[in-house]
Amino acid sequence: MKKHLLPLFLVLIGINASAQQDFFALVGKDTPSIIFNDFRAIDAANGISGEKIFTADSPAKVFSQSRNGSVTEDKNTYNNAQAINMATLAYDSFNNNLVYMPMFSSNIYVLNAKSKEITLVENSVARVTSCDINSHVTRMATGADGNIYAINNAGTQFLQISRKGNQYAVTDLGIIKDDASNGKNSFTTIETGFGGDMIADADGSFYVFSAAGNVFKVSTKELKAKFVGKISGIPDNYSVNGSAVNSNGKVVIASAKGAPMYEVDLNTLQAKHLPGEQNLHIYDLASKYLANDKAISNNVFANIDIYPTRVDENLINVNINDKEIKGNIKLNIFDLSGKNVMNQNLSVKNGSLNQQVYLRNLVSGAYLVNITDSSGKVLLNKKILVTE
After folding, report:
1. What is the residue range of the signal peptide feature (predicted)?
2. Which domain holds residue 61?
């Protein structure tokens, strides 16, 4: 069962002060069974663990969204924030939240990585039963639009978890079926398609990495999973249980069996062994990065930034404190198709600027903010999510 019901592994903060808090792992205990141990930060480049964010023994402060109040959960059930069987994790970078689900439960939990407070999202949309392996939700990722998406083992539920204000809503987007070309490499059968994890790309599609090492591209419009190929360069018995995109645009995979991590080129599916810890039991991985993202980098200069990244009042602040930046600069905003939807000229005086910019006529969605100097040199690329 462990080969197909992948545990949950969270990767958060880098191991040194300069590392970004953007890669997380859900780690299990060194046992043959799936037993949750902790969510921790991972240095994805070097394969080294960082800070433990939340563990099986941490005090759990749980707030129920439906009951509008704090709750005390029974830790001896599958329906609690520290359940032993977990296999899904996503990172909401706009709110610094880790989102996850126990494997045998329809409960959704949102853990704030800083405050350690947990929001329980109870729902009747996710139809999960402990005795039905097909229904177990084992793959989760943050999409290009900022929403969280999850898929159960058999693809019979494709869930969207969206947030508006402080409330979360769950929507079932439908059944994902095999593309006609898949043949024996089926997305919906245990041997080839179950378990694993998923990543999102910048174009709104998803890639599911099954426990068997098969990769499927999921079209959200057609609700079909097309077999892309099988990962090469990993041991024959390697169980792929976690996947997430790193800052270089490559996919990092990990195993629940206690094995090293690998970096996978999404174009060739060739895996490269990563250094570092070689015996972590990783049930799931999560990061803020998207595959095929042309704007994978953020700040070119350390002392320039925009905030907030989740915009609900049509305003962002541009802050510059760098004497190397002078004169006129240009702010451009692009949608996910690459269309320039807004531009504005700004002026930096004595290396300093602190100005609000009104985002006129931008509909809800994800955008790229690009700032260049007078010569066209890129000073900053950063994604924002505009909400109503």
Report:
1. 1-19
2. 23-287
